[in-house]
Amino acid sequence: MSVPDSASLLDEVRDSNRRVLEDIRVAVGQDKLVPFVGAGMSKPIFPLWRDSLTKLIDDLPFENPPSKGEAKGMVRNSQFEEAASLLERELHTPLTALIYADFCNDRIEEQESRLAQMPVSLLPDLFTGSVITTNYDRVVEWVYHGRLEPVVPPFHNRPGQLVAIRRQKSRLLIKIHGCISSERDLIFTKESYDEFYGEDFRGESALFLKDLLMTREALFLGCGLQQDRTFKLMTDLACTVDATHFAIVEAPEKPAPAEFRNRWESLKTARIRCYWYPYGAHTRIEEVLRFLIDPNGSDPPGDVDITFNDKPPSEGGGSTVTTPPRLPIGGPTAGSEAPASSPAPPLPVPQPDGVEDAPSPTSQPPADRPPATDPDTAPYGVARLDLRPTTDPIPPSVTLPPASTTLIVRDQELQKVTQALTDGHGAALIGMGGIGKTTLAQEYVRAHADKYSWVWWLDASTEGALASSLAEEGRRAVSATGAGGVTLVTDDTAEAYARRLLRNGTDWLMVLDGAAGVDEVRSVIAETPQGKFLVTTREDQDWQDIGATPVKVDLLSKHDAVRLLAERARPPSPDGWEATGSAGDLVKALGYLPLAVAQVGALLHFEGATDPSGMLAQLQENPEAHLVAAAPGTPPKRTMAHIWDLSIARLEERDRSAVQLLSILGWLGPPEGIPKSLLDTLPRDAFPNGPGRALRAAASASLLTMRGDLITIHPVLHRVLRIADKTVPQRTGDRVDKARATAAAMLRQVLGDADPTNPSAWPTIRPLVESAGLLATQPAAGQDEDASYVVRKVGQFLSGQGSHDRAVALLEWDLKRAEHALKPNDPKIPTARRHLADALQERRRPGDLDQAITLLQSVLTDRERVLSTDHPSTLNTRHNLAGAFT
User: Fold this and answer.
1) What confidence tens digit (pLDDT) does each residue in 573-598 have?
2) Using CA atoms, how far apart are residues 601 and 523, in angstroms rounded to an integer?
3) What's the pTM?
4) Residue 181: helix, strand or coil by DSSP?
5) Inter-CA distances, 427 with 441, 445, 510, 545, Å
């Protein structure tokens, strides 16, 4: 088919636009259209998928650095599904939590007035029925003010809604790819798209969409409709269904006539009739919608004016791809001073060891100097910078850390840090994971950054991480100062340049975040004695040896913990959020740990909770669900479980027996006071010289404390130690089971032949009550004889002490274990039934006596069958049964 010139093609587009607009108006009047809303209708409040992916790629650390360039290439080529899949594989974590901040309700709340001016706010005036969207955000919910019922994948689980969707008058918001409020079912990776759309569009989502669009016409708004799955599905649907759809579409930027014609014809093939508007003229959407709402009171949109490129390809015409300019590796970031647009006369620059000498102010670069290397094509870690200086060569920048993750400022600890850095060379913030050390360091930097010429925030978790952070700062310093003649070829030379700056400067602050120990940071501090340094660490070591004043960071007070909980939860009413109420009980269960309190508060806000009591019940019934997960938007590496896992992994590198001991302590209780005497029964083959060294190593890592004869473990860590996770080497199922079995054997050895009915044995049994309860948290299965012995003895003891509920719970577990693990004729089964029957008779709640009689009748039947009708045990059971009836 011949391609007309641009003038005649533009006339054809304008004529088509007038006919399409009129047909859309008629379809709206007949209530035939359902709006299909894409990401363009949520912009600028929410990012496009391209922008969100690009931000993730730029901000997140990659385990395999070359994959970052590969991911960026995928985004440039609009391979968004593939890029998302690569990110998940590289980060070993679902991306749903990471994109939450980009698509959550907070953005709407912050820009509600702006949303009211966007074209999407006009939809309720035009369409009163259902809406379809591929967007994760909740913009449509916001503009419809709760008038639509959301429907999200998986659709086959909601047959009633499927029937409602097919009705022409349904009022549903059909979120094809899921909703950010239900992150589990979001569709954004290639694997999730493949599963939901299926081969040849026979997947669940594809069949659902086809079924939906067979009965009505769609108006696509804010949709790209190029090579995405929706467009391909519409093309497939057009082969079987004689239906016509509409779209308000942005024209390409200066397309060649042939390029535009091909795009237009492909949309016609998908039976989509387009109303075109000029590239970038997004206000035209609002003009169209206002005209459709009131055709008589609004002027029709003006004619489209597309600028075509009529030049032949050899002269720059045709379809071209423009790659945006890119910053060099180590370029300016937030907090850095960017190079000036015009170079100033060069100044001398201090050179690190191994770095080329800078030219004199009057010299010219050698003619044979290699050209600057493009960071997009250079090997990873290589960037040649040959910039002329535009400012003082000492970095004037302050690299500010991320915003605080909690809202509680600890004035006392902040004052200690301030005093230490005023009087001395450095300070070390010491405390357990999640206690707020990094947050406290952030607060100090933000409050006192004006005291320093420049501040560097460095990752000191390993020597390699510290070296990489220094190299990054070295490159940033060169970029910020325009240091002429400085060529940073490798990470080593960039690190050396950074160390040289530290040696020569005086008014700087170096924050060493997450230091693994004194030795890991000793060299950089010894080489840079002129400035100040602030360390955050979990390791309680001799930090004074390198000139750091130790500052212990403790748990929150109950009052501050409740205040933090409420500030993160943002409840609509203050009722129930006092330290004396359920909020106080909740923060106590979380051990007053800032990270745990902040994350649970965020979950409460996310769930719209008005009272903390429900979350407290959930935490008690299923703590694992809240320890290994967090509110959407929380990075996986900041979950409560992961914070502790990092400390445990570091400890295992130094002392495996200390981690083995911790795993055992996870099954002993109570966490706030485990009797040290229990460790006398530790297996000698694992601890030949006793547990002393292992205890000291764990205490040094801030994983436990020792006070007199008691060992204290934070309650969150205590729970984490009992959660099996095949992805965590220190908490695999085998290791957790082995630790539990060891703890059970130790407790049985402590009990010996103690008789729960004998008062002389009570001092021996009483300290084991909490430990027995922990053993019984595991499903009652397997032989587990040691655990059963301990649980049964403690259950009998509690029944005699009047703790009837706890006694019944333990003895029920013991009976389930016996019935599951033992042969039907094993005499231990009727014994377990008798103990439970006794406890039920002691408790005497409604139904308890009937259950006890049933159990005793079963015991009597077993005794008569296995022993005899006149055996003493049979007679005793008959006596007990008779007593139960009286």
Assistant:
1) 666 677 667 888 888 888 888 877 87
2) 40
3) 0.43
4) helix
5) 10, 13, 11, 12
